[in-house]
Amino acid sequence: MKSLKIKLLILLFTVAVISCKNNKDEKKSVDTEIRDVDNVKIDSDDDIFIEGKSITELLNDYSLKKTLEADNFTFNIAANNKDNNRILIYTKGLENEFRKVISFEGKVLETFTLDQNNDGYKEFYITTTPLKGRSYASVGDVEIIGFASHENKEIVEIAVEDIKSIKNERTDKVDVVDGKLQRSFIVNNDPQKYNYNLNIDGDDYELTYRKVK
């Protein structure tokens, strides 16, 4: 009889351990789904994870924080603006949320929200100044990073046509004129201006330039 009781106790203990383990695994599975699946709508920064850390944790180390508004979502940018810079980009409210980390040597200058081709969907532009540019880059040259809302469902990256001019140092500027990006700089003491246009071919978005005469 005593032997039977011992066997029953061992059986009950085993069942309890298995049950606890299953509950723990089930909770872990739920947490993983919330944190790691990209295509879910986001309500809180605590639910956005990049490189294993939540945005709430990461933002403590970033001095520049921008929230750009669109029709049904926000496009969020954070940068630490140190020599080895990192830009965090993430959306909240899209059907397919977007997250990206950009590492480069330089700093973020400005951010713009535009609709250059007047299709009703926003584009988001970030201007940066690299510390180490291409072989033809001058000190103070500006680079443009672009993203576009594809029918307010997802974010696509915009390819930006590069102007390969050797500019006078610290003369390169990007502004918004009549709802479009305009770039101005000086080459050999000759002031130059370029207007940018957004071209879309299917899923391909490209920002091209045209010299202003």
Automatic annotation (TrEMBL):
It comes from the Bacteria. This is Lipoprotein.
